[in-house]
Amino acid sequence: MPRTRHPRSHRLHQPEQYRRVFENACRSSDDTLQIVARRNDCGHARLGLAVSKAAIKSAAARNRVKRVAREFFRLHREELGNLDCVVLARRGAEQKTRQQLRDTLHKLWPQLARCKKS
After folding, report:
1. Does residue 3 sit within a domain?
2. Does a structural domain hold residue 85?
3. Which residues of 32-67 are buried (b: 16+ CB within 10 A; e: fewer)?
4. What is the DSSP letter of 74?
5. The CATH number of the domain where 36 resides is what?
6. What is the model's pTM?
7. 66 with 116: CB under 8 angstroms?
8. In Å, how far are 46, 97, 107, 114 from 13, measured between CA atoms?
9. Is residue 2 domain-resident?
10. CA-atom Rg of the chain in angstroms
11. Domain that holds residue 71
């Protein structure tokens, strides 16, 4: 049975953790989402989310974007190795369906492979 939990150890919590990701990070983006990633020393991938009210006004839409990103990360985190990833939402993400958001993440995720090599 595949792992279905998203444990606390696989999340970014502290501002310093986010700051570290944004320094010298690999970026992968399109018009609605951006993923920023950097190698870590934890031995496993960790996820951070930055979905601002300025980008997405509706709380329900912000939560939907975060749920889709968490679900996608949970299902694909083994592919990332030891990367810290921050998913940022841009204006227009609230107009995308769940499937469109998943498709966007599926398109952006492989581009992070270059971060694992650096």
Report:
1. no
2. yes
3. bbbbbbbbbeeeebbbbbebeeebbeeeebbebbbe
4. H
5. 3.30.230.10
6. 0.88
7. no
8. 10, 27, 26, 25
9. no
10. 13
11. 8-108
| pLDDT for the residue numbered 24 | 84
- Give phi and psi for 30, each to the nearest 5: -140, -160
75-79 long-range Cβ contacts below 8 angstroms, 24+ apart: 75/2, 76/109, 77/10, 77/44, 77/45, 77/47, 78/45, 79/109
Residue 73 within any structural domain of the chain: yes
Specify the number of domains making up the chain.
Answer: 1
Number of helices followed by number of strands (H, E) in the chain: 4, 4
Q: Where are the alpha helices (DSSP H) in 34-97?
A: 59-80
Tens of pLDDT, residue by residue over 69-111, are: 999 999 988 888 889 999 999 999 999 999 999 999 999 988 8
How far apart (Å, rounded) are the C-alpha atoms in residues 80 and 30?
A: 19
* Pick from 37, 11, 13: nearest CA to 23: 37
